[in-house]
């Protein structure tokens, strides 16, 4: 393992700085982690989603805490209190639209972040734990968003909660007691709404805790980079500030431009009209669909329409859906290739992009009615989803011939820039240096 | 001191080992007993259970071919009165037509009240409320994932695996139904 050589050390200059440093060296920790910390010099924009995710988490917590000041977590008051936030509370509409669309953008960023990891092999040794912590954050995010969506107590809130807690009834014997334990009753009702509010408040702070572990693990192993070659010397890296800071900030601003467009011009585009109808336990909306970020998993759930032996289609569907996330956890051990980055894996690259297209296709199918040709297509898509992890990843590593991997990040960067400048004398010298 | 003698005699458990194990065990029991109330509080509480008292349903206004929805324990139930034709078409269904076979007699109300079907209105797949239809022999279809039930709530096709369950109920007269108990 390379030892990460930092760019400079913290030198407190002021009296207060020295006083702090001798007692609680928090400024030193910050300096070492976010100023002098060495990052690969060739990071591209795919590496900026992590920063965005941290900011989105902060934004969700801030908007959430102020929404909670006006929200009423009871079945009698929930729906009207959200309308009250929208109409009466000063700037309430803005805060709520930021929170609701913020969840969507949070998920958009996390999906891109996960795809980045899959493409550049970030999950591979020695970053397995870093990857698993990320998967845990993803799970917690899903739980948080699911419970948050129940809070406005609209028709989609109610029926979404009914269907999702209904998953547990798929398990024989223990299923129904577990469902009642979650609901605090026999159906989704006031006790359910109350506990969901409590947990929706709690989980983001648990996410923040896991994020700290995630970043800690990241700073032990260092970041990957597009070449997948580990950092070997100081010339492979640049200091976090200003290089990564500026790049992250620029990407964040662009991301926020899109976010603001949604918040101000199409705040309900990602939502469902049915959720502006108050929950009614006696009538199910004619077409219930989850939020867009759950659609691929929903499609997998519905794709299983057949029984296998004693296992019913219902149980299998639920297992497949949970399995589609569980399989991410073991990804580091499924991939047998010695080469980390897809840049040098010609076949993996193809299967990876197919995986991305397939995931989007699954999302599209999840929004379609579960009948006829859609069910068949969803079954094919589900097959590829699992096939990618369970068959392609292990086999491909054994049979694929990777391209030549550069010896170091610096070599790759110089080769690229000499190609671009048509082989300027200086670059030519540098690359001969490398060959020697 | 006793310490020196016991460390020499490694196979024998010492008094200190005993104290370690005993403390550990007590600690585990203590932790579990403290954890229990935190989990137990999540189960349906007394108010929810009290709302589970049986309910009376007045049937006077329900004509053959009609269905009403009532709630018991916060959950919806269908009370449906079948026409002669509907009973006949449901009777024709055999074992091959459905995923979970149940003879028609077991699905209909008691002796004198054969035209009533009282079933849970939560789809046995994931709990949506199926829509009442009367494309005989189909009686309900679920908007969520497309399960189809017959006139008596038996599962014909779709992702649901079991029939709509029957709540405990009893007819106290020809026009009064009690849901929530089978004792008159
Ligand atoms: C991981 C971070 C979070 C995510 C992904 C998230 C997600 C959501 C979602 C999807 C909704 C439904 C929005 C709608 O359609 O109206 C919601 C509502 C709500 N959330 Fe959060 N949330 C997060 C953090 C928080 C926090 C920390 C609080 C603090 C108390 C909070 C308080 C609320 C409240 C009061 C509502 C109901 C009002 C409303 O519907 O706008 N949220 N959340
Ligand atoms: S809930 Fe009825 S088919 Fe899924």
Automatic annotation (TrEMBL), chain B:
Q: Which residues form the Rieske domain?
A: 85-178
Protein's membrane topology? Single-pass membrane protein
Relay the cofactor remark from the entry.
Answer: Binds 1 [2Fe-2S] cluster per subunit.
Task: Give the enzyme's EC designation.
Answer: 7.1.1.8
Coiled-coil segments: none
What is the predominant subcellular site recorded for this chain?
Answer: membrane
Q: Supply the alphabetized keyword list.
A: 2Fe-2S, Cell membrane, Disulfide bond, Electron transport, Iron, Iron-sulfur, Membrane, Metal-binding, Translocase, Transmembrane, Transmembrane helix, Transport
Top-level class of the enzyme under EC nomenclature:
translocase
Q: Which CDD domains match?
A: Rieske_cytochrome_bc1
What stretches pass through the bilayer?
18-39
Name the InterPro entries on file.
Rieske_2Fe-2S, Rieske_2Fe-2S_sf, Rieske_Fe-S_prot, Rieske_Fe-S_prot_C, TAT_signal, Ubiq_cytC_Rdtase_Fe-S_su_TAT, Ubiquinol_cyt_c_Rdtase_Fe-S-su
**What does the record give as cofactor?**
[2Fe-2S] cluster
Q: Where in the cell is it found?
A: Cell membrane
* A Pfam entry, by short name: Rieske
What chemistry does it catalyse, as a reaction equation? Answer: a quinol + 2 Fe(III)-[cytochrome c](out) = a quinone + 2 Fe(II)-[cytochrome c](out) + 2 H(+)(out)
- Assembly notes: The main subunits of complex b-c1 are: cytochrome b, cytochrome c1 and the Rieske protein.
The role this protein plays is:
Component of the ubiquinol-cytochrome c reductase complex (complex III or cytochrome b-c1 complex), which is a respiratory chain that generates an electrochemical potential coupled to ATP synthesis.
What family is reported? Belongs to the Rieske iron-sulfur protein family.
Other remarks in the entry: The Rieske protein is a high potential 2Fe-2S protein.
Q: What is this protein called?
A: Ubiquinol-cytochrome c reductase iron-sulfur subunit
From which source organism is this entry? Answer: Ahrensia kielensis
UniProt lists the gene as petA
């Amino acid at each position: 393992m390379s030892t990460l050589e930092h760019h400079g050390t913290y030198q407190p200059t002021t009296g207060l700085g020295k006083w702090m440093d001798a007692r609680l060296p928090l400024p030193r920790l910050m300096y070492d982690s976010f100023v002098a910390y060495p990052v690969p010099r060739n990071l591209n924009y795919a590496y900026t989603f992590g920063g965005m995710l941290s900011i989105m988490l902060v934004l969700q917590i801030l908007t959430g805490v102020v929404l909670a000041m006006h929200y009423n977590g009871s079945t009698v008051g929930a729906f009207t209190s959200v309308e009250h936030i929208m109409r009466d509370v000063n700037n309430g509409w803005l805060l709520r639209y930021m929170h609701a669309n913020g969840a969507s953008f949070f998920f958009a960023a996390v999906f891109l972040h996960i795809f980045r990891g899959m493409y550049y092999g970030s999950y591979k040794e020695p970053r397995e734990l870093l990857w698993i912590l990320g998967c845990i954050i993803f799970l917690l995010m899903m739980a948080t968003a699911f419970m948050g969506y129940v809070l406005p107590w609209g028709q989609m809130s109610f029926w979404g909660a009914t269907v999702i807690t209904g998953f547990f009834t798929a398990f024989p014997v223990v299923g129904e007691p577990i469902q009642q334990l979650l609901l605090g009753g026999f159906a989704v009702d006031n006790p359910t709404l109350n506990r969901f509010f409590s947990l929706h408040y709690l989980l983001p702070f648990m996410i923040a805790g896991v994020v700290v572990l995630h970043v800690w693990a990241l700073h032990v192993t260092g970041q990957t980079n597009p070449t997948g070659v580990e950092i070997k010397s100081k010339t492979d890296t640049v200091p976090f500030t200003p290089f990564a800071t500026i790049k992250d900030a620029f990407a964040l601003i662009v991301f926020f431009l899109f976010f603001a467009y949604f918040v101000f011009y199409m705040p309900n585009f990602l939502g469902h009209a049915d959720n502006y109808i108050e929950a009614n336990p006696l009538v199910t909306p004619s077409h219930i669909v989850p939020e867009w970020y759950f659609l691929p998993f929903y499609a997998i759930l519905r794709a299983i329409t057949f029984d296998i032996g004693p296992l019913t289609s219902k149980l299998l569907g639920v297992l497949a859906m949970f399995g589609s996330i569980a399989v991410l956890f073991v990804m580091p051990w499924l991939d047998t290739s010695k080469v980390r980055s897809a840049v040098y894996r010609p076949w993996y690259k193809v299967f990876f992009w197919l995986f991305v297209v397939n995931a989007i296709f699954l999302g599209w199918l999840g929004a379609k009615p579960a009948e006829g040709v859609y069910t068949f297509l969803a079954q094919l898509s589900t097959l590829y989803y699992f096939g990618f992890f369970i068959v392609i990843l292990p086999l491909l590593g054994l049979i694929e011939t990777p391209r030549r991997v550069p010896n170091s990040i610096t070599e790759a960067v110089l080769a690229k820039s000499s190609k671009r400048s048509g082989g300027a004398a200086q670059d030519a010298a540098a690359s001969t240096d490398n060959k020697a | 001191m006793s310490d020196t003698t016991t460390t020499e005699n490694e196979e024998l458990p010492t008094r200190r080992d005993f104290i370690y194990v005993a403390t550990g065990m007590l600690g585990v029991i203590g932790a579990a007993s403290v954890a229990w109330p935190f989990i137990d509080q999540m189960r349906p509480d007394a108010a929810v259970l009290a709302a589970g008292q049986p309910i009376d349903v007045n049937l006077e206004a329900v004509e053959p071919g009609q269905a009403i929805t009532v709630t018991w324990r916060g959950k919806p139930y269908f009370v449906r009165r079948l026409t002669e034709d509907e009973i006949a078409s449901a009777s024709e269904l055999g074992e091959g037509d459905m995923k979970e076979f149940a003879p028609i007699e077991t699905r209909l109300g008691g002796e004198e009240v054969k035209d009533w079907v009282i079933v849970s209105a939560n789809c046995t797949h994931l709990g949506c409320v199926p829509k009442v239809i009367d494309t005989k022999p189909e009686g309900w279809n679920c908007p969520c994932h497309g399960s189809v039930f017959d006139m008596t709530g038996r599962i014909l096709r779709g992702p649901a695996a079991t029939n709509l369950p029957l709540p405990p109920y009893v007819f106290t007269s020809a026009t009064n139904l009690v849901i929530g108990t089978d004792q008159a």
